[in-house]
Amino acid sequence: SACAARCFSKRLSASHSLNFVAQLMETTCDMIESPSVTLLEYVKSLRSITPLLMNVSERISAQRVIKGRGVVAKIVSGHVNWEECKISEDANAYIDELASQCGRVWTTIDLHGNLPHPLHARTWKHLVSAGYYALLEGFARVPSCSTEGRASMAIDVASYTACVSPAGIQDLLGSNIEVPAVDSSEVVHEVDVYIRAYYFPPDEMFSWIMTHFCDFTEMQMKALLTTSSQLSADDPDAIDRLHAVEDVYAKVFECLR
């Protein structure tokens, strides 16, 4: 809705206000003749963590405004037969809907006019990336999938990439809609690599998971093991691998405490 898009715009502006405050504190601290060690450490930690906080808050806001949960629901709802043993040449219907939602949100933000121009490209990139992450989450939640179904997922990703390009958005919403040209190759690669990981033999898949666990969630990595055509959750080796993955993430969470 227009209200949600305007709220997203305000959250982005607030996020960058936080960055301004952090920079202001750093500058003020430099002007103090003899700042305390505690103050210096606080300002340093605030300055270092601010970019991460900004990125996380903007990603969460983008997921909400494009209705990412709805995208995931459509992927796993049963309307798509992921176990079908034939390859479709067309993307699934939710791809056009997702790209159109991103375009409508952007149009509302652009027409509202309150977002600083330097943030335009960053805003559109967050919207587009949120779509890719919703697809990734949905694909990971598909309980059973054929090799042809994995190919269909790759087609969905490629189609979404085309739809959210400047020309693609104009085809969907009209020639008067202009979106910034952004480079989303990094997140596209992330989703593509995840889909291709399903084709790995068991030992290679497990090694890949243990190498790339920082790039994906625990649920997503465990899904690779439980829905792979080559592994079964009842297989003792598969269960051992699942426990090993759980242990890795448990150690990560422990380190973050």
Chain-wise SSE layout:
Layout: H1 2-31, H2 37-65, H3 68-76, H4 93-112, H5 120-140, H6 147-163, H7 166-173, H8 185-197, H9 202-212, H10 218-227, H11 236-256
Helix pairs in contact: 1-2, 1-4, 2-5, 3-5, 4-5, 4-6, 5-8, 6-8, 10-11
Question: Which key features would you list for this structure?
Answer:
11 helices; mainly alpha
Q: What's the quick description here?
A:
The protein is mainly α and 257 residues long. The chain has helices spanning 2-31, 37-65, 68-76, 93-112, 120-140, 147-163, 166-173, 185-197, 202-212, 218-227, 236-256.
Indicate the proportion of strand residues: under 5%
Principal-axis shape: flat
Uncertain runs: none
Structural class: mainly alpha
- The string of secondary-structure elements, in order, is HHHHHHHHHHH
Radius of gyration: 21 Å
* Secondary structure tally, helices: 11
Question: What is the end-to-end distance?
Answer: 38 Å
* Number of beta-strand segments: 0
Q: What kind of sheet is the major sheet?
A: none
Percent helix: over 70%
What is the average of the pLDDT values?
Answer: 85
